[in-house]
Structure formats: structure tokens, C-alpha cells
Amino acid sequence: MEQQHAFAHAMLQWYRENGRSLPWRETQDAYAIWLSEVILQQTRIQQGLDYWLRFMHRFPTVDDLAAADEDEVLRLWQGLGYYSRARNLHAAAKQIVALGHFPDTLEDIKRLKGVGDYTAAAIGSIAFGLPVAVVDGNVYRVLSRYFGISVPINSTEGKKVFAALAQELLPAGQAAAYNQALMDFGAIQCTPQSPRCLLCPVGELCDALHTGRVEALPVKLKTVKVTERQMSYVYLRCQGQTCIRRRGKGDIWQGLWEPPTAEVVQAAGLPLGKQLRKQVKHVLTHRVLYADFYLLEVDLQPRLPAEYKWIDESDIEQYALPRLIEILFESIDG
Length: 334
Prior knowledge:
Elements: H1 2-18, H2 30-39, H3 45-58, H4 62-67, H5 70-77, H6 84-99, H7 106-110, H8 117-128, H9 137-147, H10 156-169, H11 175-189, H12 207-211, E1 227-237, E2 241-246, E3 257-258, H13 262-267, E4 274-283, E5 287-297, E6 309-312, H14 323-329
Helix pairs in contact: 1-11, 2-3, 2-8, 8-11, 9-11
């Protein structure tokens, strides 16, 4: 118990001296806090900050976000990846507006589209002071090392062990500060590689440091197989216009726009044209994509499947594109 109390006290003291200054920490607005948490899933703070500022400028309230067109939300999200987050964000905004206020209990926050245990705990504790602990990658790492826990963090047992420990450590009345302290400590001090152990305020009691297991903890089971996928696209140009289609459900990039594939162009009886890029590598979480890219200029618009639409080339920026398509488009001549 003494070790746990000393740990919580040290985290709060460290946070007062070293915590990151972030704009969503300067407000009690649940909307702003929720927006930051959704953006920062799978995203570095510096990149996420820029997107948060953009969203807050364009949609200063949840009502503004709920009333927006999905295409505009996706365009503003462009470059962050994991586009289901943007679609869930938009859907949840509509839920909040329908409810008439931002939900302020853990159970109601979890009912929002795309909000899981971690995000709900972060919003609940930071915006409403709810006594609930957050457990993310940083928290897993810090607790695993400090207490010397070798149970895999992505196992059923591990999730239960760390969730229970995190909740037990939570100091009364200080959930917001403590949760943010632990997240910042993992991001700044107890980092995945080259942690600052010699300057660690809890180093004297850190099990991993004293047993030489800092690099070995936390333990994570390897369960996901990365697959490779080949893609080929053709940029069709016809008298200042090009054609694109919106990707459907059941695959990557749902709701985003893309040019015709090589298969579609060849099925229309057309050649692929000039090859601009070959085997461009693009890494997603569980996939590695390799893409070829061609430019084909024609005098008449060919007959393509109904989902393709012709637009002025100058209007392409009005459509939300996957990052890979942006990279391919950068190779097109003016």
C-alpha cells in the first residue's frame, strides 16, 4: 500500500512540474475534451494538435459538427487515417445533439459511437471528475515496469489485472490530474525506447529498473498478421476533368474517394497510359499496400461504371482522399 501511495504522489508531483501544456487541458468543455481524445487515438500529440485546432475553428460546438456534411468532416480529417474515427465522431455528435447535452456518466459516455472504455474514462475523469482510471499504452508501460508485471497487456488476464491496478491507484478527488499525469509520464519519461531511468522520480522503487527488465516490459503477445495488398490506379484526364468514385463499406477507406482502378479502365477497353509511379509502399495497421499509378489522357469520356463521377480537376481538393491517393496524385503533371 505504501508503494502504491508513493507512486501516485510522485506522479502528481511530476505532472505539476512536467505536464504538457495543451489547449484542451485549459477548458472544462466536454466537447473539446472528447474531440481531443478521438483525434489522439493512434495519433501523435503534435500532429493531433493541429487537427484539433482546425476542428475547433471550423466546428466550435458539437451542434456545428453534427450539422456538417460528412464529406466536409472527412476532408478536414484527411491525413489522420483510421477514417472510421471521423465517421464515428460525426455520428456521435448527432447523438449528443439529440440527447440535448453532453452525457456526464460513464455509462452514457460509452453509448456514444466510437467511444470505448479508455476514451470514456478519459472524458469522464477530465471533463466531469468521475473517479475512473484510464488505461492506454502509456499506462500499461508505466505500471508494468514499476510493479514488475509480466502478464501480457493484450491478454484477457492482463487487461483485467492492469484495469484493477489502475483503479486501485487512483487518488481520491484527483482523477483528472492523475490520469493525465500517468499518460504524460509514459509519453515523456517512461518511453518505449531509451526511457529516462536515471532521472526517474520513482526509480528507487521501480521493479523493472532493479531487475534489469526495463526493455522487456511490458509484455505483448504477437497476434496480428500483417498482409500485403497490390493496387493499381489510373488518373483519367479528359479536357480538364477527371473521374473518381466514393469507396463503399466493407473495406479500407470507406466513404473516401479514389480514381479508377487499372481493372476498371481495362474493362472499358482503354490502355493504362503512362506509368507515373511503381510499387509505392503505404503501411496501414494490419496491411502493407503497394500501388502502381498511371496517367491516361483521352479526348472523350469513356463509359465507366455508374459509381464514377466526372469532376473538374481544380475541384479535387473538395473531396476527401486517402493518403495513398494523395501521394499518387502528387506525381501528376500540371
